[in-house]
């Protein structure tokens, strides 16, 4: 499979924030921005892979500043990393005040997309041609993020297995802003 450059699939989606996108506080709903991010990630990943892509994971969604009605939001997406069937799409979101021209960077997030075939099974994607030092840095950062995510998962699974809701295990809650308001001798757990 011949490699494809980062530039070949770089995609920008721009949309005006209309009043129906606002929440009760008058700011743009986070869900609207997430939906736009998913769309641009899909377009970018599909361009790189030439396949139908699905979202498997979303990372780094921190809304640093509110987006206002009337602002022009641009989402710039590029392939940061490719595995065998997966691609990490980096998305930078900016919001522009069209009257003043002021631009703010609201967030940068990473969507992992998987290319699928006609049977909805993961299918191989082209290698990534890194044409600039920035392309290379982003690829290496994505490798590190992936490695740390795996370490975090292992550590969390390990720590999780040590969490006890009985026999003094609740001591760690002493400095937290919560109150155990049930009889602790009869604990029900619906999540695990
Ligand atoms: C995506 C999907 C087809 C993958 O199927 P699967 O049987 O898990 O396939 P694999 O285990 O071979 O994983 C495929 C790739 O996804 C990657 N992957 C799977 N889960 C992941 C996760 N949580 N985070 C990052 N990468 C992930 C794997 O590392 C692998 O990458 P690689 O081929 O580049 O090494 C399947 O999980 C699916 O259909 N998920 C639902 C997707 C969807 O509906 N999304 C819409 C939003 S709800």
From TrEMBL:
SUPFAM superfamilies for this protein: Thioesterase/thiol ester dehydrase-isomerase (SSF54637)
Domain HotDog ACOT-type intervals: 7-119
InterPro entries: Cytosol_ACT (IPR040170), HOTDOG_ACOT (IPR033120), HotDog_dom_sf (IPR029069), Thioestr_dom (IPR006683)
Any single GO BP term: acyl-CoA metabolic process
Domain of life: Bacteria
GO molecular function, one term: long-chain fatty acyl-CoA hydrolase activity
Keyword flag Coiled coil: no
Cellular component, GO annotation: cytosol
Keywords in alphabetical order: Hydrolase
Homology family: Belongs to the acyl coenzyme A hydrolase family.
PANTHER family according to UniProt: ACYL COENZYME A THIOESTER HYDROLASE, PROTEIN VDLD
Protein name, UniProt field: Acyl-CoA thioesterase
């Amino acid at each position: 499979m011949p490699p494809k450059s980062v530039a070949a699939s770089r995609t920008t989606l721009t949309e005006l924030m209309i009043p129906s996108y606002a929440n009760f506080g008058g700011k743009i709903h986070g869900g609207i921005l997430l939906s736009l991010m998913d769309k641009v990630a899909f377009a970018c990943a599909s361009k790189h892979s030439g396949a139908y892509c699905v979202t498997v994971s979303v990372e780094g969604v921190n809304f640093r500043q509110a987006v206002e009605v009337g602002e022009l939001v641009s989402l710039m997406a590029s392939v940061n990393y490719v595995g065998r069937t997966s691609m990490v799409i980096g998305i930078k979101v900016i919001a522009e005040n069209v009257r003043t021209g002021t631009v703010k960077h609201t967030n940068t997030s990473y969507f992992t997309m998987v290319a699928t075939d006609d049977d909805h099974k993961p299918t191989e994607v082209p290698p990534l041609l890194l044409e600039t030092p920035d392309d290379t840095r982003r690829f290496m950062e994505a490798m590190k993020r992936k490695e740390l995510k795996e370490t975090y998962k292992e550590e969390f699974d390990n720590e999780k297995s040590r969490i006890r809701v009985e026999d003094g295990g609740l001591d760690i809650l002493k400095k937290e802003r919560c109150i155990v308001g049930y009889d602790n001798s009869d604990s029900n757990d619906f999540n695990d």
